[in-house]
Amino acid sequence: MWTFLGIASFIYVYKKCGDLMSYANKEVLLSVLVFFSLGLLLSYRYHFRGPRQRQQQKQKSHLGTLSDVLSALPLVGFFWAKPTPGSQQVEQPKSRKGKKEVNFSDVCLTETAPNTALLPQYDPEIIIVGSGVLGSSLATVLSRDGRQVTVIERDLKEPDRIVGELLQPGGFNALRDLGLEDTVEGIDSQMVNGYIIHDLESKSEVEIPYPTSEDGRVASGRSFHHGQFIMGLRRAAMAEPNAKFIEGTVLQLLEEDDCVVGVQYKDKETGDTKELHAPLTVVADGLFSKFRKNLVSSKVTVSSHFVGCILK
Question: What domains does the chain contain, in order, with CATH numbers?
Answer without folding.
Answer: 2-82 (no CATH), 126-286 (3.50.50.60)
